[in-house]
Every structure is written in structure tokens, then in C-alpha cells.
Design brief:
Elements lengths: L27 E11 L15 E11 L5 E3 H9 L8 H12 L1 H5 L4 H10 L2 E6 L10 E5 L7 H9 L3 E4 L14 H22 L6 E5 L2 H12 L5
Parallel strand pairs: 1-4, 5-6, 5-7
Antiparallel strand pairs: 1-2, 2-6, 3-4
């Protein structure tokens, strides 16, 4: 029997966090959210309509021309509430989204009432809902992580600098909870491939120049996407 020894070299470096104010670009970031169904795959448990296939929430930030009312963080949290039940009214969607979004912070001892008060302020974000998209070809960034509310500020900032940002909320293969396994990885990749087809067919957005950014388990999905999609650089 042969034994192989792997030597791991660890290096440490002392450095300080770099703090710099993010300056928005010259474009107005627009935002739209589309609800579509992948008829080739089964619905997720708890999904409102199970007859049309797997529900995919397609969230898109983009450089815009026309200014409308700014999004608030509460609007993004409401989208969390609509991931399985898109027909929910605003108040019900916000309530459900708050409960879902705050599950992990609550487990770490965070104060939910303070979070609710923050949402009630409806502090404006950068993006403006459903404003007119500029027609120029733009590079696309796929943002793979969590809910629509996660890294929303990053998506808005990138859109203000001329990028189109695509995000699909993470869900499991048959359940709402993510599968932390090979099956879950494949599910995330297929969700993004479906969403890429939606924005291409319905909005004429082509993926000639694409990059992918992933966080946590989404980092592995980002690698898998880049291996399956040759136009991701």
C-alpha cells in the first residue's frame, strides 16, 4: 500500500482592514423582479402553484435612464416573502420575508424588534424599481448567494457603474432549504442557467461578457457555473 503525505504550508500576514466609501457611478440603477416557472423540473415543497414546475424568482439590477421611486431595504425583504408565494400582498410579503430573513440572525441572539423598526423607516436604497433599461450591451455579473436582500447594495452599486447583475434566490431541489451537497450544487447551477435564458429571451440580454461572484456555498456554485458556461470569464 502506498502512502502519500500532503504537506500544507500555512502563512500568516498582518494587515489592517481597508475602509473606503463606495462612490456610485453615473448610471441610475434600475431593478426588476420576474417570477417564472421551469416546467422541466418539479415544484419546491411549499410552493404556491405546484402545477407549472419549479418557481424561479429572477432579480435583475441594470443601468437605467428613467427615475422612479427608490427601492427600500423593506422592498427587498418583501421579495424574500414572495419566493414561494408571489401573490402575497405587500404587508403579508414583508411579514413573511422578515420571519424568513431573520431566522439565522435570531439564532445568534439578534433583536428582531429593532430590525422591524429599521424596516419601518423605509430608508431609500440606490435602485429604482422597473425603470427603463439602457439599450447598450453591458457586461453581466451573476451574483450567487442567499436572498434578493443579500448583497443588494453591492448589486445596486455595480449597476450604477454600468453592469447588469442577475440574482436568483437559493432554494433546495425539492425543499425550500438548500441542499449542501452535489445535488444542491447542480440545482443552483440549473436555476441560473434558466434565469439566463429568461433574460435573453424576454429582455434581449445576451451573455457575451459574463462574470460570476459567489459567497459561501454559492462560491462552489460559481465555480460550477463557470465550468459549464464557456462565456463566463
Amino acid at each position: 500500500m502506498k502512502f502519500f503525505t500532503c504537506l500544507l504550508l500555512f502563512t500568516t500576514q498582518l494587515s489592517f482592514g481597508q475602509i473606503k466609501k463606495l462612490v456610485p457611478g453615473s448610471s441610475i440603477p434600475g431593478f426588476m423582479s420576474l417570477t417564472r416557472y421551469d416546467a422541466t423540473r418539479q415544484a419546491v415543497k411549499g410552493q404556491e402553484d405546484t402545477t407549472r414546475g419549479r418557481l424561479i424568482q429572477v432579480n435583475l439590477w441594470y443601468p437605467s435612464k428613467r427615475g422612479n421611486k427608490n427601492m427600500s431595504f423593506a422592498d427587498y425583504v418583501s421579495l424574500v416573502g414572495r419566493e414561494l408565494t408571489p401573490s402575497l400582498k405587500d404587508s403579508s410579503a414583508l411579514r413573511k420575508g422578515t420571519d424568513t430573513y431573520f431566522t439565522w440572525p435570531a439564532s445568534a441572539g439578534a433583536d428582531k424588534e429593532k430590525f422591524k423598526k429599521f424596516l419601518q423607516r423605509k430608508t431609500p436604497m440606490l435602485a429604482q424599481r422597473s425603470s427603463m433599461r439602457t439599450k447598450e450591451k453591458r457586461p453581466i455579473i451573476l451574483l450567487v448567494h442567499g436572498y434578493a436582500s443579500d448583497y443588494a447594495y453591492m448589486a445596486e452599486h455595480l449597476a450604477s457603474h454600468g453592469y447588469i447583475v442577475l440574482q436568483v434566490p437559493v432554494k433546495g431541489t425539492t425543499n425550500y432549504e438548500l441542499d449542501f451537497a452535489e445535488r444542491g450544487l447542480d440545482t443552483q447551477v440549473k436555476d441560473y442557467e434558466f434565469a439566463m435564458g429568461v433574460i435573453n429571451k424576454e429582455l434581449g440580454i445576451t451573455g457575451d461578457q459574463m462574470a460570476v461572484v459567489g459567497f459561501s456555498f454559492g462560491g462552489q456554485s460559481a465555480i460550477a457555473l463557470s465550468l459549464r458556461q464557456k462565456n463566463i470569464k
